[in-house]
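As a warm-up, study this chain.
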Amino acid sequence: MKTINRWWIVVGSVFGLLVGNGPIMQFTFGVFLLPVTSEFGWSRSTTSLALVIGLCVTALCVPLAGRLADRHGVRAVTLPAITLFALAMVALAFLADTPAKFMIIYALMGIAAAGQTPLPYAKAIAAWFDDKRGLALGVAMSGVGLGAALVPQFAQALVAHVGWRGAYVGLAALTFVVGFTAVGLAVREPPHRAAADGLPALPGLTGRQALRSPLFWKLAIAFAGVALATNGVIAHVVPLLVDRGIAATLATSALGFAGLALIGGRLLAGFLLDRIFAPYVAAFFFLVPVAGIALLLANPSPAYAAVAVVLIGLGLGAEVDLIAFLLSRYLGLKSFGEIYGYLFAAFMAGSGGGPYVMGLVFDATGSYSSALAGLSLVLLASAMLVLRLGAYTYPRQNGGGNRSEVLQAAH
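Now compare it with the structure written out below.
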């Protein structure tokens, strides 16, 4: 068997996640929110409901995508998903002229997004890495931050030059070309071998066993809460800042700082996870956004608004690799794709609920302040949950070996 440098899987994951569901579906939503509502006269809460529907559909479909990836492999799930996701964005450009159509297309996009989440990339990396799993996950998931920093700027430029419809077409092309190429060339799992060949079986719980575990529910509730808070604020940060008199271009630039913070958060979290007890790392990154929300409540100048967005982005930047790492250490690798799907479903449900709560509170009060205060309390509760996880159930193997090296040696 030809030896594969496992770090190429990480590189491919970076580019695949650059145009994943997060940067494309969530981080550009604030860029499209004002031009879409301005053209059609829809309320912000009505328009935001489309994102809620899309993310909730993704949440429902991610466990199925995880089971399919466990059975058929990463590329068999991700390549068709990228294609369908791009086609859904083209449909937004040409067919979304009523709230109902806008929501239906976002729902279809949400189905395709289930195979374009960090799940397949995290599954591949967790299988290839044990001794440097935290770092590998952190580097790979920084692709989401890179996309969050660059894609909204690209979308804003397209909106300015070709309108929001043309911008959706441009994002569709970017997603297909970059995502399909990255996954097709680089992302793969190690070959599966039977236990009879002398290789150790993957340790861990089945999906059904995980659903009966208190550890699973602590993780699920904690990540749903953090996603509710951080994604809710990020989705509305551009209109929030514009409402305070900050130019749209400056507000979008602040969102770009969140993307850079995403990168830093993922890399820092990945580095720390291999060295510090993971619940401590998780609690730290769950609490950092509270400071950012406090700055937004203080009605800051553009410079301080950027700092606030960076602090929120640091917390958002650590979530996805924390899910994968904590899952691997507390619930194991046996049904990694399926269980990750359940946890990411909780994460996506929170991600969808946050923007809707923010929009609903704004429509009811004319301000985001009450929502920001409530979301700060949600972050505090999530940090307390992860601190109650206890010792690792599946610690690193002695000697730091990883399954990919065992598989290669067997050949």
